Structures are given as structure tokens and as C-alpha cells.
């Protein structure tokens, strides 16, 4: 064995001499025969398992062959085209002419003539992979999930689709002001209707039980739902005469004093209603910007005991003390079901508008924890610096940074800031990003690459947590330069927020999105 040749190569290479070699041949002849006629087998491994050839990896998307569809013969193909891709009939063309202009009909016919059904049969296909869209777009119908139904003009039965009108700044401000005024008028009408219902209830309880024909249940319903006022209003004289005839028919044996009110009773009732009405208006004026106050029954219903308080002799609950609004700590929110007794999530609920269950369902993670020291005249003050993220797993991601001498305070503050700073991240097919993204913070460069379905997340561990929080499942990343933990998190967040928008690119080129992507007939989109 040569010194320059390792022992492993000699052990792993096996030479087999032919069976007809004579054992009495000289050494030189044996060496020559072995050199020319022996066979060399592959190197054997250092284990006893049998070598198995790797199987060919099957394709992820199996194409349907033309033989399986029976389209190799021209007669079969013609029959398939006739059944599944028939041309427009005269009846269908007449329907189209009733809906479209002659120019649009010519465009439709030109498009039908330009597309060869044979090419669609051979080349086009509908995706059957697990990541395919769950719908086939039909532009002849309106989908309430995506399409906005146009508003119908006055006097027209059904709304007709029309081209969108782009308003200038002045027209948009006028339209916006008109909508705000309509909302303000509606709220004012609601407040006045509720105030009138409460005034009528007090008058009915005091002296007008027989003068007001509305029952207690109807007044309560009117206070809760002000839109019910139209049900009790008399619009014209004919309706008033009909109502009077109905009341006389219901009680023909009643006395005139019971069927109709005298002038003195009417005047007394009007004065009482006007007095109560002024009190309600004064209450609305004093509480400027506030909604009309709830009734006593509603306050009891909103209490801890619910409607059972209405049947007890206990005094009603004391509400907020007048004059100290905003200076006291409110009780626990009943919607929290006792999960936030101390009110720790009250401020974050007010800022974000989320419920407690939605906040607790968010994915929060501490990505960077480092300790810093500040030199003061009292010595070194050690603090904890926290970088946290928060996401809902469906396209929203937030970043929060906090520092405190108490670790728990820093963690909670960073998480709350991350929840408050959540923003939408653009996702392609709800699994990866649009194209490639790159961002640089300091000396750290992060490069993100989109990947096909099933690729997974092949990224560093901090980027992995951010992808899981935002809902990305197929992504690759590189960090060719510095790998500072804090800068890598900031650069990744910046890259996710600054993705290229395909619709803006297509709009800048003056093309449609399908023409900019160059993907037709449901072809490869990965």
C-alpha cells in the first residue's frame, strides 16, 4: 500500500479475479492478468444495509393528458368542443343585443373569433392543485363579497351599472359634507324622538293615561327604536278621518266624553307635553355632543343583575357622579366576561377598537432582549430594551420597542405598542410576498424572495417569527452583510411594508394586470 494512498480507498474498492485464473502462474503474470481482466465493483459502504436507488420525485401538479380526455382524434375533439365550448346561438345573440351596444357586440364577436377553442382545449386548464382559487370569476353577475351594488336613482326600479365618476377635490368635499350633515340630522332626529317618547311616558304616568292612546309597551318600543315613529304618525286628513272612524267603530256605546277629548283636556295635555318637552330639550342642550340619556328601565337592564332588578325594592345603581366625568376609573367592561378586572386592556381597546378576545388572540413574540446601562450621578442604571412583534396571522403585523428598569414593564409596553402599531402587509395568495424585497438598516441588509407553494419558511429564526405572525408560509431570505438582531428585525419590517404593488406597476405601464404578468388561461403563476 502506498503511503500517499489512504487506507479507506483500498478498503472501499474491491477487485474480483476471474474464476479461470490458474493459481500456479507466476506473480508477474498474475498481476498482468489481474490488471487487464479483473472487474472493479463500486466502493462498499461501512454499513450492512442494501443500497437502494432513489425514486424519481413525482411532479407536484400532474397534467391531464389528451389521451385521457379522448381528444387525440379530430372527431372526438369536435364533439368535445361542441358540448363544452359551443358558439353563440341566435337566441343568445339577441339577448346580448338587448343589453349591449352594436360596438360592444362587435367586440365580443371579435374576441370569440380571436380565441381558438382548440388551443384552449390543449393548452388551457383549470387548476386542481390544493392552492387553486376556490371560484371562477363571472363578470356577468355581481358578487356581494367583492362588488358594490350601484345606487339606484329616484324613480328607477333596478340600478344600472355605470362608469365610476372621479370627483375633484371640491366635489368630493361637497359630497362628504352632505353625508356628514345627513348623519348629524339623523342622529338629531333620533335624540328628539327618544326625548319625545320619554316626555309622553311621564305625561301618561302623571295625568294623561286616558288622553294618550299609546300603550306603555309602544312608548318603550318607540324609545328604543325611533324609526317606529312613522308607524304612529298620521300623514294626511284622509288617514285622520279613517282613524277617527275606526275608533268610533271600536266603541259605539262609548260616551262622547270618552271617545273624544274636550278643548280643555287637549289644552291641558298640550301644556304638560310642552313642559316635559322643554325639560328634555334642556337636557340635550346641557349634554352637548352626548346622546340622549337612557331610561330607568334601560339603566336597570344594563346593571349586573339585569331585569331582576326591576322587580326588587332595592334602590337603582348610582351612575357616574355629575361633574367628574373622565376623572374616575370605570368598572370592568361587561363584554370582557370578567377577564380584565383591573382594566389593563382598557386603553389599548380604546385606541385600536378591538375587543378583549381579539386582542388576546393576537400572536405576540419577544424578538430582541438586551440590557443597557446609563451612567448617572447615582451610578449605573441598568435597563432592559425589548423589541416585540404582534400579528393576527392574516396579513397584519406590528412592531413595538420599549425600555424600562423593570423587565415585566418593558415587555408589556413593547407588546401593547406592537398591537397599536399593527399595519397591513401585502401578501400574494395569502402565503408569500409579491416579487423580491430588499431593505437596509445600518450595516444590515435583508433580502426576501417569494417562493412557490409548499416551499416553507427558510429564513433566520427572528424572521421566521415575523413571517408566522403576519401569515407568510413560503419565503426565503438572505442576510449577506451584518446580522445585528435589532437592525435585522427593523430591516425585515421595512422590506415587508415596501413591497412592489403589481397593480401600480401595470397602471404605470398602461396595461391590465393580466397583460403585465403575461399569464393567460390559468397558466403557471408561481
Order of strands in the sheet with most strands: 3-4-5-6
Q: Roughly how much helix do the residues carry, as a percent range?
A: 40-55%
Tell the overall outline.
Answer: flat
Q: What gyration radius follows from the Cα positions, in whole Å?
A: 40 Å
Alpha-beta content class: alpha+beta
Major sheet details = 4 strands, antiparallel
Question: What is the count of β-strands?
Answer: 10
End-to-end Cα distance = 56 Å
Number of helices: 21
User: Overall mean pLDDT score?
Assistant: 75
Low-confidence stretches are: 14-40, 252-259, 289-295, 297-307
Q: State which percent range the strand residues make up.
A: 5-15%
Key words describing this protein structure:
ribonucleoprotein; 21 helices; 526 residues; Ribsml_uS5_D2-typ_fold_subgr; 4-stranded antiparallel β-sheet; 4-stranded mixed β-sheet; alpha+beta
Could you walk me through the main structural features you see in this protein, from its secondary elements to its overall organization?
The chain has 526 residues and is an alpha+beta fold. Helices cover 42% and strands 12% of the residues. The strands form three sheets. A four-stranded antiparallel β-sheet has the order 3-4-5-6, with helices on both faces. The longest helix is centred in the middle third of the chain and has 38 residues, at 169-206. Residues 362-425 form the S5 DRBM domain. InterPro entries: Ribosomal_Su5_D2-typ_SF (IPR020568), Ribosomal_uS5 (IPR000851), Ribosomal_uS5_C (IPR005324), Ribosomal_uS5_N (IPR013810), Ribsml_uS5_D2-typ_fold_subgr (IPR014721). GO terms for molecular function: RNA binding; structural constituent of ribosome.
Amino acid at each position: 500500500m502506498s503511503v500517499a494512498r489512504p487506507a479507506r480507498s483500498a478498503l472501499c474498492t474491491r477487485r474480483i479475479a476471474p474464476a479461470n485464473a490458474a493459481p500456479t502462474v507466476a506473480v508477474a503474470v498474475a498481476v498482468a492478468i489481474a490488471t487487464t481482466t479483473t472487474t472493479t465493483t463500486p466502493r462498499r459502504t461501512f454499513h450492512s444495509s442494501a443500497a437502494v436507488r432513489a425514486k424519481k420525485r413525482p411532479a407536484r401538479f400532474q397534467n391531464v393528458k389528451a389521451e385521457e380526455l379522448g381528444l387525440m382524434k379530430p372527431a372526438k375533439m369536435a364533439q368535445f368542443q361542441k358540448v363544452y365550448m359551443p358558439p353563440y346561438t341566435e337566441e343568445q345573440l339577441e339577448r346580448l343585443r338587448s343589453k349591449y351596444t352594436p360596438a360592444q357586440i362587435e367586440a365580443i364577436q371579435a374576441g370569440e373569433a380571436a380565441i381558438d377553442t382548440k388551443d384552449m382545449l390543449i393548452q388551457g386548464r383549470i387548476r386542481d392543485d390544493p392552492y387553486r382559487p376556490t371560484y371562477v370569476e363571472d363578470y356577468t353577475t355581481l358578487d356581494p363579497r367583492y362588488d358594490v351594488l350601484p345606487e339606484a336613482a329616484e324613480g328607477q326600479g333596478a340600478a344600472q351599472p355605470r362608469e365610476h365618476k372621479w370627483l375633484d377635490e371640491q366635489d368630493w368635499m361637497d359630497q362628504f359634507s352632505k353625508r356628514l350633515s345627513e348623519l348629524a340630522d339623523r342622529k338629531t332626529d333620533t335624540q328628539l324622538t327618544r326625548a319625545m317618547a320619554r316626555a309622553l311616558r311621564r305625561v301618561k304616568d302623571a295625568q294623561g293615561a286616558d288622553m294618550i292612546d299609546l300603550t306603555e309597551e309602544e312608548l318603550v318600543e318607540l324609545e328604543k327604536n325611533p324609526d317606529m315613529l312613522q308607524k304612529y304618525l298620521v300623514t294626511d286628513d284622509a288617514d285622520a278621518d279613517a282613524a277617527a272612524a275606526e275608533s268610533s267603530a271600536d266603541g259605539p256605546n262609548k260616551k262622547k266624553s270618552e271617545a273624544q277629548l274636550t278643548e280643555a283636556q287637549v289644552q291641558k295635555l298640550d301644556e304638560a307635553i310642552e313642559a316635559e318637552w322643554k325639560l328634555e330639550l334642556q337636557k340635550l342642550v346641557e349634554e352637548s355632543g352626548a346622546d340622549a340619556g337612557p331610561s330607568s328601565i334601560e339603566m336597570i337592564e344594563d346593571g349586573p343583575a339585569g331585569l331582576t332588578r326591576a322587580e326588587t325594592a332595592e334602590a337603582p345603581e348610582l351612575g357616574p357622579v355629575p361633574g367628574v366625568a373622565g376623572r374616575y376609573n370605570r368598572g370592568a367592561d361587561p363584554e370582557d366576561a370578567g377577564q380584565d378586572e383591573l382594566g389593563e386592556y382598557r386603553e389599548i381597546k380604546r385606541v385600536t377598537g378591538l375587543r378583549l378576545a381579539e386582542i388576546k388572540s393576537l400572536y405576540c413574540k419577544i424578538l430582541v432582549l438586551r440590557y443597557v446601562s446609563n451612567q448617572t450621578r447615582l451610578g449605573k442604571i441598568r435597563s432592559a430594551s425589548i423589541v416585540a412583534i404582534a400579528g393576527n396571522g392574516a396579513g397584519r403585523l406590528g412592531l413595538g420597542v420599549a425600555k424600562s428598569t423593570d423587565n415585566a414593564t418593558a415587555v408589556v409596553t413593547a407588546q401593547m405598542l406592537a398591537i397599536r402599531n399593527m399595519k397591513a402587509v401585502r401578501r400574494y395568495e395569502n402565503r408569500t410576498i409579491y416579487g423580491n424585497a430588499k431593505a437596509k438598516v445600518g450595516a444590515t441588509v435583508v433580502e426576501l424572495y417569494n417562493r412557490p407553494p409548499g416551499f416553507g419558511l427558510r429564513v433566520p429564526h427572528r424572521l421566521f417569527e415575523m413571517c408566522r405572525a403576519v401569515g407568510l408560509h413560503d419565503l426565503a431570505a438572505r442576510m449577506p452583510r451584518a446580522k445585528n438582531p435589532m437592525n435585522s428585525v427593523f430591516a425585515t419590517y421595512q422590506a415587508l411594508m415596501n413591497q412592489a404593488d403589481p397593480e401600480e406597476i401595470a397602471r404605470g405601464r398602461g396595461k391590465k394586470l393580466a397583460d403585465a404578468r403575461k399569464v393567460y388561461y390559468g397558466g403557471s403563476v408561481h
